[in-house]
Structure formats: structure tokens, C-alpha cells
């Protein structure tokens, strides 16, 4: 069996929740893309990362059904695990930094996979949503406190690959931050926390807590 770490990324203030992430630190043990795709499907996490160069931070990211040029929580989790100043993804170079209990990445909205950002009037409406039928990737959100930048959100991948709801989605948070043009404090899923902040030149920082599960 290939060795891999399991992290929880974007955990809540007490360390709970977060989105599970598989990280294969020695990506060379599974060099072929088809084999990596099969391994990611076998693990069944929303994303699995293969590290091709731990010193330079070169990574390769997969869902159970497809390869991604960039993804938020995999980059935050892997940057924390490797403790590197940047990650090299197919989309571009992702800056990374540690700040107390939070790990931050810096990326561009155009790197994120397409998401439908669907606003609702209240957080309660978002809480009450049923999982939609497979189709488009929907990021449902509402203001909890607009003045404070607090958002309630849920993510529905709609891929039909067994991941009906994504507990914490950094790429969608990046897109929402870029659209709104302001820093956000997002509660997603059952209780995960994602922090964001727009930066000059079209960059967005996305941060959260990371814990090593096993």
C-alpha cells in the first residue's frame, strides 16, 4: 500500500471539522497520471495531492474523477505539511506562509475551477438546502453579518463521484472574495472556517487551520 498522510484543512476554532485531504509525499512511487487518478478514486477524498518535489513544492492534484490545475484546500494543507514558501502547480506558483495557527496561500481567481456562486437571502436558507442533483458545481452562500464580512456557505460539487457536499472549498472562497472585493470569514459545511483577503494585482489570500489526522 502506498504511504500517504491524511490532513484536515480549514478546521473550526476548536480544531474540529475541516475537509480531509490525502497527501502522497513521495509522488514518484505513482508516476503515471492514470495510476494517480485510480489511487485518488480509491482513497475517495475530495482531493488527493501527489508531491513531486518536496523542496520546490511541486504538486499534482486529483479529485476522485479528474486532475485539477489548482485547488484551495489541497494547497493550504500541503503547504502546511511541507512548510514551504511556495507550491508549484500546473496553474502557476502559489505563495504560502504560516501565521500562528493559520496557514495561508496566495493565488489568482482565474486559476480556480468554475463554480456557480449562488447567493441566498439568509444563512438559514443555506442551512436548509438539500443536496442538488448532479450537474454544475454550486457554492451556496449568504451573509451572516455583512458588515463584519461573515459568510455562511455550502459547496455542492455535482460531479456524481460520491462527494455530494464539500466540507470546505478554498477555490470557491477565492472566487467569492474576488467577486466581492473584500476580506471574508466563511463558515462552510458542518463547521469549517475559511479566511480570505484580497491582495493587490488580482491576488487573493486564503487561510485556515490544518491538523494532521494520520
Distance between the termini: 15 Å
The CATH homologous superfamily name of the largest domain equals Diaminopimelate Epimerase, Chain A, domain 1
Q: What composes the largest sheet?
A: 14 strands, mixed
Order of helical and strand elements: EEHEEEHEEEEHEEHEEE
Rounded mean pLDDT score: 95
The level 1 CATH classification of the largest domain is: Alpha Beta
Proper CATH architecture of the largest domain: Roll
Describe it.
This is Phenazine biosynthesis protein PhzC/PhzF. It comes from Streptomyces caeruleatus. GO terms for molecular function: catalytic activity. With 214 residues, the protein is α+β, with helices and mostly antiparallel strands. It folds into 2 domains: 5-106, Diaminopimelate Epimerase, Chain A, domain 1; 111-201, Roll (Diaminopimelate Epimerase, Chain A, domain 1). It is 18% helix and 39% strand. It contains 4 helices and 14 strands. Strands 1, 2, 3, 4, 5, 6, 7, 8, 9, 10, 11, 12, 13 and 14 form a 14-stranded mixed β-sheet that branches. A hairpin with a 4-residue loop joins strand 13 (192-198) and strand 14 (203-212). Helix 2 (72-82) packs across helix 4. The longest helix is centred in the N-terminal third of the chain and has 11 residues, at 33-43. It is globular and about 50 Å long. The chain starts with a strand and ends with a strand. 43% of the residues are buried. The mean pLDDT is 95.
